[in-house]
From TrEMBL:
This is Adenosylmethionine-8-amino-7-oxononanoate aminotransferase. SUPFAM superfamilies: PLP-dependent transferases. The record marks 23 as: Participates in the substrate recognition with KAPA and in a stacking interaction with the adenine ring of SAM. The gene is bioA. The lineage of its organism: Bacteria, Pseudomonadati, Bacteroidota, Flavobacteriia, Flavobacteriales. It is an enzyme of class 2 (transferase). Substrate binds at residues 58, 273, 307, 396. Pathway: Cofactor biosynthesis; biotin biosynthesis; 7,8-diaminononanoate from 8-amino-7-oxononanoate (SAM route): step 1/1.
Length: 429
């Protein structure tokens, strides 16, 4: 009886009974949109309306939703080995994934530590940096980070995030952090000066940074040469370099990793999001032998005593391995180049428009600011969101920034439609 009763209510109404959504003030938020299907670049809602997923569902489903190559591999894995404790045991999906990843990771990355999501990937990056120095007997307990960085929502990750605007309740419990602005090309000398004075003054253990593009700061780009200089100086001071590639990794910037644009390579790389292609949650933190060796000891306490129950879940590993196989394929690389070129052309066109500021692109990521005053969570973003959704395109503007991170498999026509609704918005807002 009860079940029948429930079925007369819409999914959106039933959602409100028991569910608490992320990053949401439920009192002022509109109803959640039920999605019943995702295939390729298309999301379908419970009314049958279709939307092009122009941000790859938060930068995850870059090979398209429910990609058959990946779902087949996961389904096969599911028949064979679903889960086993990764402490004391190992399995082929994790081993194969490590072999495939080490080939494409920035030079020097040799050891992989599994976790569950992007926040825990950075959390472990921070722990590696702090414990590296602890194990070596160095008194270094402060992290360095960029202003406006975002590294996740767990405590360590929140601490290093400059952007965490609603974290007032937790601030007393944060780890110690010093911040520098991102080098933009124009301010490089000042950034370096600030960096040098912090390094002289504070006991910096590690530097955590989103290489070249700060996603949550509304796709803020910075200068590769300036970043390279920052990394070089940090390395000279034995500061552990922790690259948070959770957003930028796996082809989005046009190369496998954003770190590939800099000569100075990270000591630690944090991965998630596109790692598992939107299919299953997983994070990874890789490191160089220099870091690993500081934990390798006869003393048990020098090990990294961190572990999640679902560490290296075989299904997630199978998804990630299939994803890497797709990423390195000629077809996917061509897709990435095609979208990168289309983005460059679109940026050129947009730049002529009087309402467009700072149009930019790198790889499949394209962003610009609408020349309208607003705040990050002001009403403009909701109106823009609705405008795009009404026209069948899922975009998630931040403040007055409109950006796309389309799946690599987006068709030319779908991409044209995304560009054209963006152009339409310029004459309405
Ligand atoms: C999304 C993101 C995170 C956090 O990942 P979650 O899986 O959401 O915890 C961390 N760093 C960056 C750069 C991200 O974009």
């Amino acid at each position: 009886m009860r079940d029948l009763e429930l079925k007369t209510e819409s999914l959106a109404e039933r959602d409100q009974k028991h569910l608490w959504h992320p990053l949401t003030q439920h009192k002022t938020s509109p109803e959640m949109l039920p999605v019943t299907k995702a295939k390729g670049c298309i999301l379908t809602d419970d009314q049958g309306k279709e939307y092009i997923d122009a941000i790859s569902s938060w930068y995850t489903a870059v090979y398209g939703h429910c990609n058959k190559y990946i779902t087949d591999k996961v389904a096969a894995q599911m028949q064979n080995l679903d889960q086993v404790v990764f402490s004391g045991f190992t399995h082929e999906p994790a081993i194969k994934l490590s072999e495939a990843l080490v080939k494409i990771l920035p030079k020097g990355q040799q050891k992989l530590f599994f976790n569950d999501n992007g926040s825990t990937a950075t959390e472990i990056g921070i722990k590696m940096a702090l414990q590296y120095h602890h194990n070596l007997g160095n008194d270094r307990k402060v992290m360095l980070a960029f202003e406006e960085g975002f590294h996740g929502d767990t405590f360590g990750a929140m601490s290093v995030s400059g952007l965490s605007v609603y974290n007032g309740a937790f601030e007393d419990h944060f780890i110690r952090v010093e911040r520098i602005p991102v080098p933009t090309g124009k301010n490089n000398a000042e950034v370096i000066e600030q960096l040098r004075s912090i390094l002289a003054d504070k006991n910096i253990a590690g530097f955590i940074y989103e290489p070249l593009i700060q996603g949550a700061a509304a796709m803020k780009f910075h200068d590769a040469e300036g970043l390279n200089e920052v990394l070089k100086i940090c390395r000279g001071n034995d500061v552990v370099l922790v690259a948070d590639e959770v957003m930028t990794g796996f082809g989005k910037t046009g190369r496998y990793f954003a770190s590939d644009y800099m000569e100075e390579k990270p000591d630690v790389v944090c991965m998630s999001k596109a790692l598992t292609a939107g299919l299953l949650p997983m994070g990874l933190t890789s490191c160089s032998m220099k870091i690993y060796n500081a934990f390798y000891s006869d003393e048990i306490a020098k090990g990294l005593f961190h572990g999640h129950t679902y560490t290296a879940n075989p299904l997630a590993c199978a998804a990630a391995l299939a994803a890497v196989e797709l990423l390195v394929s000629e077809e996917m690389q061509e897709n990435i180049q095609r979208i990168s070129q289309a983005n460059l052309d679109f940026v050129n066109k947009l730049s002529q428009h009087p309402k467009v500021k700072n149009a930019r692109s790198k790889g499949v990521i394209m962003a610009f600011e609408l020349d309208i005053q607003t705040d990050r969570y002001g009403s403009l973003r909701n109106r823009l969101f609705k405008f795009f959704m009404d026209r069948g395109v899922f975009l998630r503007p931040l403040g007055n920034t409109i950006y796309i991170v389309p799946p690599y498999v987006i068709s030319e026509n779908e991409l044209k439609k995304v560009y054209s609704v963006i152009e339409d918005s310029l004459s309405v807002f």
